Amino acid sequence: MSLQVLKFAWPDVAALTLNVVPPLDASSHKGTMGRVGVVGGSKDYCGAPYYAAVSALKFGADLSWVYCSQEAAIPIKSYSPELMVTPFYDDKRLGDSNTEHLHETKQDFIDESAEVITSSFPRLHTMVIGPGLGRHPDVQLMIQAVLQEAVSKDIGFVIDADGLNVLTTKHSPSVSGYSKCILTPNAPEFERLASATLAHFEGYVTNDKNNGGEDLNVKAVQYWMQQLRLNDSDTTTPSSTHETSLDGKLHTTKLSATSPADTTSTPPLTTTEAVLAKRVYALSVLLGGVTILRKGEVDIIASSRVGLNNRSSSQHKDDGPSTDAVYVLYGKGCPRRCGGLGDILSGITATALHWATPRAHLLPDLSSALANNSNVHQQTHPIEQTQTIRTITTTTLDSITPDPSSTDSSSTTPSKPDLHNALIHACIFASTVAKRSAEMAFADKGRSMTAPDVIERIGRAFQDIYKE
Asked: pTM (2 decimals)?
């Protein structure tokens, strides 16, 4: 098996990825294009959940809910009449001495609060968990319960901001192997996730214990932990016409599809980007193949098929894919880093997740398509069998009803839709629209640009990209 690191720009994938977008149809009803729930918002942070929820609407979702603290509910309601806002806990009960000393009562409080959200699952297509959530331990326990129930109900979700901190706690819920989970960390959040994941597996490797009954390759776990610890000095700077192993050793096999840097507008893959791409992929491996969109100057997207487990897939160790890929998406964006940009992306991504899932059968395999594109910078890294924790075969959507509006019967369409591939397409489209929106806002506002300026331009950016 081999790993491809592919660096590209939106024009290289536009014709492939635009099938994420379902056509507008007069026969559709309210809610068809997406019912998104945003879980976040606390007394100190009211803007973040609003940005995520309204961005989902501006991107094309029909309905958007916000589940927040009681103190945040009225301010968020006042921001927009388009959002449905439901408080799921009373701020005054957080850390209350009456509940601290009565374990049963505190647990009741946590369960009742979580149930406000989980009881609404039948109306939601996807969720965003984390914007403005805060870090109170009681709230983190509520979110753990919500995540566990979302996994059991097969609801897709995007975890961002303070939601990612829930995954780093000692008693964090296991989203490992859940195919409809997208994590969207920025640089510091990625490092915290990496540290927490390494700490978890240190105990597993040290004690030589079976992790939750999984039959894992301990040497492979150690190997991917090593990859997650990589830094720039650990990897030899690769040539654009050579393959390099994940250990940084250069091989002399020429890449047939690699083009000189002066023939493409996409800058060559840098050493820093290549190392970071491997680290993002390694974290996806250790988390069982969840999709990770690591935000930055370039967005790096991985959805590993070499992971610990996958709740939605048929698992066979001998018929997995011969290649896997990590995607480095180059886009101009803007140099401004005001608050709220990540919240905007999370709302957009949750909507794209809902769109891509039933349309996965229309989305061609990106790694194969990009490998034959002369504009794409790429490296190939061999993955030996000893490095395979467990091969996850193509995650299929047998339980998902295909979008009836799609009639394409092209021979290139996979016979069984690939959920990993679909989520990659969703992340690429969401990232592209978010960055184009920010680019437009910065061109108009310059240094005074803030998140509302970006939200205002989501529609224009979408139309500029999609040209419906």
From this structure: 0.87
